[in-house]
TrEMBL record:
InterPro entries: aa-tRNA-synth_I_CS, Glu/Gln-tRNA-synth, Glu/Gln-tRNA-synth_Ib_cat-dom, GluQ/Sye, Rossmann-like_a/b/a_fold. GO terms for molecular function: ATP binding; glutamate-tRNA ligase activity. It comes from Arsenicitalea aurantiaca. NCBIfam families: PRK05710.1-4. This is tRNA glutamyl-Q(34) synthetase GluQRS. GO terms for cellular component: cytosol. Its EC number is 6.1.1.-. The keyword Ligase applies. Belongs to the class-I aminoacyl-tRNA synthetase family. It comes from the Bacteria. The keyword Ligase applies. Keywords: Aminoacyl-tRNA synthetase, ATP-binding, Ligase, Metal-binding, Nucleotide-binding, Protein biosynthesis, Zinc. It is an enzyme of class 6 (ligase). GO terms for biological process: glutamyl-tRNA aminoacylation.
Length: 290
């Protein structure tokens, strides 16, 4: 399906409540809300909490608190992904009926042992062991309760949908979005990606694509660490007959050692900065929005 630009511009900031927000999140939020205003549109807040083992209600509350402190406002209600598992499951089942998803019973150790290539994130690219299982073997393994996830048969998906071009906009020095241009995608470099995890009926890729369409998102602004994942997203949009939003990827905020800020490394949070006396104006100035 074509781009969704026929609609009023709508962007989204979509954090995961698995820790406190830091300066990297603040940059992305300020960019998203500012770009929406410049386009004459609106920015939504979405809570991406599909990882139910790591996401906590207290972190969701903290997201609301931190963003409000920064002076950002968003429409209600806020979409919470953990309420949408039925929609994700239905989409995955539709892809499976078309022969585009297959169950994979391999452990992480087996995936790593079989891999001869890495994916764009540096992880082992799946070698395809379970892709070749007979249907009867798959059915028996599932009936026996064997742990499994579901992967996209990338070769079949590309044969059906091709390699869709990606509408991409440059982020200008004033943090506005430039006019979009089309660039090539190469989803094959990801191999047979996981679309349904063992523990939940979806994955980041599937949930994000479905929710962007569900919410009428026309522009997606996010970090450059997700640039390569866009290849998967436009392919899924083509397979599911969903519109392509315009994508814009910004540089990452780094610490003094040039490392990407991350919750897992204990990067100083907005709450920490606030406790040390930082103001919203200080945050904006530090991130170039002064």
């Amino acid at each position: 399906m074509a781009s969704s630009l026929a609609h009023r511009p709508r962007l989204r900031f979509a954090p995961s409540p698995n820790g406190r927000l830091h300066l990297g999140h603040a940059f992305s939020a300020l960019l998203t809300f500012g770009a929406a205003e410049a386009l004459g549109g609106e920015a939504l807040l979405r809570i991406e909490d599909i990882d139910i083992s790591r996401c906590k209600p207290e972190f969701t509350r903290a997201i609301f608190e931190d963003l409000a402190w920064l002076g950002l406002r968003w429409p209600e209600p806020v979409l919470v992904q953990s309420t949408r598992f039925a929609a994700y499951r239905a989409a995955a089942e539709a892809l499976e009926r078309r022969g585009l998803l297959y169950p994979c019973f391999c452990s992480r150790r087996e995936v790593a042992a079989d891999a001869t290539h890495v994916d764009p994130d540096g992880g082992p690219r799946y070698g395809g062991r379970c892709r070749h299982l007979a249907q009867g073997d798959r059915d028996r393994a599932i009936a026996a309760g064997a742990p499994h996830l579901f992967r996209l048969d990338m070769a079949r998906a590309i044969a059906e949908a091709g390699r869709p071009e990606i509408p991409e906009a440059e982020i200008l020095p004033d943090h506005r979005l430039g006019s979009p241009t089309l660039r090539a995608s190469d989803p094959a470099r990801w191999g047979d990606v996981v679309l349904v995890r063992r523990d939940i009926p979806t994955s980041y890729h599937l949930a994000a694509v479905l929710d962007d369409a569900h919410q009428g998102i026309t522009h997606v602004t996010r970090g450059a660490d997700l640039l390569a994942a866009t290849d998967i997203h436009v392919l899924l949009q083509r397979l599911l007959d969903l519109p392509h939003p315009v994508y814009a990827h910004h540089g990452l905020v780094r610490d003094a050692g040039a490392e990407k800020l991350a919750k897992s490394r204990g990067s100083e949070s907005l709450a920490d900065l606030r406790a040390r006396g930082w103001t919203p104006a200080d945050i904006r100035a530090r991130l170039g929005f002064g």
